[in-house]
Amino acid sequence: MIDEVIFTAARTLVGATHLIASALAATGPMVVAALRLPGRRPDADTALKRGLAWSLVAMGVGLATGGLSAWLVSVSPASGYAAAWSRLPGTAVAMLATEWLITAALYACYWFTWDRWENRRRLHAAVAWFAGTNLLYHFATMMVVLGAVAAEPQLASGSPISRPVFRNLITQPLALSLALHYTAYCTLVGGVAIGLALATVGAGAKPAAIALAGLTVSLVTGGAVLVNEPAGVQRAMLGGSLLATMPLLLSLTLALRLGWLLLAALVADVRGAKPTFREAAWLLFAITLGMVWSGHVVSKL
Question: Hey, which of 62-76, 106-120, 237-251 has the most confident mean pLDDT?
Answer without folding.
Answer: 106-120
